[in-house]
Specification:
The structure holds 2 protein chains of 2 kinds. Helices cover 33% and strands 24% of the residues of chain A. In chain A, the strands form 2 sheets. An 8-stranded mixed beta sheet of chain A has the order 6-7-8-3-9-10-12-11, sandwiched between helices. In chain A, β11 and β12 form a beta hairpin. Chain A has a domain of 212 residues: P-loop containing nucleotide triphosphate hydrolases (Rossmann fold). By secondary structure, chain A is an alpha/beta fold. By secondary structure, chain B is an alpha/beta fold. Chain B has 10 helices and 12 strands. In chain B, the strands form 2 sheets. Chain B has an 8-stranded mixed beta sheet, with helices on both faces. In chain B, a hairpin with a 4-residue loop joins β1 and β2. The two termini of chain B are 32 Å apart. Classes of the chains: A alpha/beta, B alpha/beta. At the A-B interface, α7, α8 and α10 of A face α6, α7 and α9 of B.
């Protein structure tokens, strides 16, 4: 049971531009345990989506990945296009942020779900319609028999996101990657989608990677948390530990700076400065220019990963001392 | 008119016609703002929350007269500005400024920051005095003087929002309407902008209307909150009352949707079968506490149930 579903080791991703290469993901390692959800948390540009795309074999043409992504004994980064195509969608599937742009506007929901079966798992045409309706019923879409013939624009944002989750689960994958699936939705709809996600995950025994920028969402999903900053893992550990007793100054800053009713009346603690762009990064800790604990060595060399307890690791010189 | 209020809006309506066919025949209306009363006490922060499409941005844009209201009054210092002609609005426009969600599309990409800020300064200053004022404005929003000579694309999102705020305060306004001012920003930068808005409020005695879908933010920043649903105010209260004892089922639903909050009484929410209620309460299709009478009651008023707490519900919680 302890055998991990996915193991990522020393993943590095470089983007090639006209004049030079720059790293967007550096030395990222993590594993996803069976029936667990790993949350990858970070701000825009921290490399969380790139990490997910590399697992799916969907990196843009000007990007290249090195390291290992081990799924069922094979390194996904070394597979041929055709081999990864067979895994993608069937064994590892993905739910994207924006349900409107990830659905084809000129095809009905039925036609889009049919394509999934045609590509991976052909079923006789007289059974097809029933199977597609089942896919929608599984994600609690009311009146699925009729909705199946609707076009994406005829559905609300929450319904479209349900369709995408349904499509991701249609072929019974082992691992689902959800990239900010609720960011474009209202809070009320977000609550419904999170509930559905948790419910289906439990029912089907799925493992998942949930990508988000919102630490408050993490409290609703997820077992482990991975905090990324400027392409690197700065902290990783069990959810409870990270949310209540974070070790890295960046994680602490993120938690302290999120506003809430309970914190009203006082100025909000904040992290000074901005997220560095990939061109600006130096050799040392990527967070040092914004860190209040930073010392000389933080600027010069990258802190190694330090273990703080079972499953809890952090990349910081100050804590290593 | 009550002079505690710097801005007072009564029964404001803004309908958008739905047109069909080649001759654009009007077949109906979208009631984006449908009889809204709103008061902004001097020096306070009033929040407007609601889901997307509830009319909160239209309300803001109608208050500053980007849209012309169909009905109702907008009293600014007791003077109705809802019918004032465009040419005579200029002075009022200076006093009520707006900060938009996306600072990039609201700055002119071809002008350096100093030109953007120059427009707002009073006439008759020497060139040197103007530059000094610009540096002072930049300092107030936490930007270095060198920022004056740069162009919008050279800044990060958070810095651009600071420029948006500097521009808004350059004309010495009394009211600033913030429409989702931090939702486009990174989490670690959001807090910086919120603190800046708090600081400016203290230093300059500003009053804010703060529009957001983020209840955590509204709970942190606002003193009074209006909850809006489909063009109407559903509940109004002091932030403490609203967060500790919401009385409208819709407000409760919003509160319980905040991730990480303990869910107490979410109940079995019925699926909205008919999105368009035939009459009665607008929230009826989604309400977990509804009774048959809610669907038929033709007019549900906004009732004051205790001091500074109003609810539009037949069966308040």
């Amino acid at each position: 049971m302890d055998q991990e579903v996915l193991k990522v080791e020393e993943l590095c991703i470089h983007i090639h531009s006209e004049d030079r290469d720059y790293p967007v993901v550096e030395h990222v390692s993590f594993e996803v345990l069976p029936e667990h959800t790993l949350c990858i948390v970070g701000e825009s540009g921290c490399g969380k989506t790139m990490t997910a795309l590399s697992i799916m074999g969907l990196l843009p043409p000007n990007a290249s990945a090195s390291g290992k992504v081990i799924f069922k004994g094979q390194n996904l980064l070394e597979l041929e296009k055709e081999q990864i195509r067979r895994i993608r969608g069937k064994e590892i599937s993905m739910v994207f942020q924006d349900p409107l742009t990830s659905l084809n506007p000129v095809l009905t929901i039925f036609e889009q779900i049919r394509e999934i079966f045609e590509a991976h798992d052909p079923i006789p045409s007289h059974l097809l319609e029933n199977r597609v309706v089942e896919v929608l019923q599984e994600v609690s879409i009311p009146d699925a028999q009729h909705k199946v013939h609707a076009y994406p624009h005829q559905l609300s944002g929450g319904m479209r996101q349900r369709v995408l989750i349904g499509m991701a689960l249609a072929l019974g994958p082992t691992l689902v990657i959800a990239d900010e699936p609720t960011t474009a939705l209202d809070v009320t709809i977000q609550a419904e989608i999170l509930e559905l996600f948790n419910c289906l995950k439990k029912e089907k025994g799925l493992s998942a990677i949930y990508i988000t920028h919102d630490l408050s969402v993490v409290s609703e999903v997820g077992d482990e948390i991975l905090i990324m900053y400027a392409g690197m893992v700065v902290e990783k550990g069990p959810k409870y530990q990270i949310l209540t007793d974070p070790a890295h100054p960046y994680t602490q800053g993120l938690l302290k700076s999120s506003p809430s009713y309970e914190k009203r009346g006082r100025p909000l603690p904040f992290i000074p400065g901005n997220v560095p762009s990939p061109e600006e990064k130096g050799k040392g800790c990527p967070f040092y220019p914004r860190c209040e604990l930073s010392k000389r060595e933080c600027e010069i060399s990258l802190p190694p990963i330090t273990s703080l307890g079972p499953g809890h690791v952090v990349r910081c010189w100050e804590i290593r001392r | 008119m009550d002079d505690r209020y710097i801005l007072q809006v009564t029964s404001l309506k803004k309908y958008f016609p739905i047109t069909r066919g080649i001759i654009k025949k009007t077949v109906g209306y979208i009631k984006a703002v449908d009889g809204v009363d709103l008061e902004l006490p001097k020096g306070e922060v009033v929040g407007i929350v609601g889901e997307s499409g509830c009319g909160k941005s239209t309300l803001a844009r109608t208050i500053i007269r980007i849209y012309i209201p169909d009905e109702g009054k907008i009293l600014f210092h007791g003077k109705d500005i809802s019918r004032v002609k465009e040419g005579d609005l200029k002075n009022t426009r200076r006093k009520i400024q707006m900060v938009f969600q996306d600072p990039y599309s609201s700055l002119n990409p071809k002008l350096p920051i100093k030109s953007t800020l120059l427009d707002g300064l009073e006439k008759g200053l020497s060139k040197r005095e103007k530059m000094e004022k610009i540096y002072h404005l930049l300092e107030m929003v936490g930007l270095p003087p060198s920022a004056a000579h740069k162009y919008p694309h050279e800044f990060s999102g958070g810095q651009r929002q600071r420029i948006g705020i500097a521009r808004a305060i350059s004309v010495r306004p009394e009211v600033i309407i913030c429409d989702e001012p931090v939702s486009a920003l990174d989490v670690s930068v959001q807090a910086q902008i919120i603190n800046l808005l708090m600081k400016l409020r203290e230093e300059r005695g500003l009053s804010y209307i703060f529009i957001s879908h983020d209840l955590n933010l509204v709970g942190f920043f606002c003193n009074f909150v209006y909850v809006m649903y489909r063009g109407k105010i559903m509940e109004y209260a002091r932030v403490e009352d609203l967060f500790e004892s919401p009385r409208h089922p819709y407000t409760l639903m919003l509160m319980e949707s905040i991730p990480g909050k303990k869910k107490k009484n979410r109940g079995n929410r019925p699926w909205p079968q008919e999105m368009e209620p035939a009459g009665g309460c607008l929230f009826y299709p989604r309400c977990a506490f509804r009774k048959p009478s809610c669907a038929t009651e033709p007019h549900i008023p906004l009732v004051e149930i205790s001091s500074l707490h109003r609810v539009r519900c037949l069966l308040p919680l």
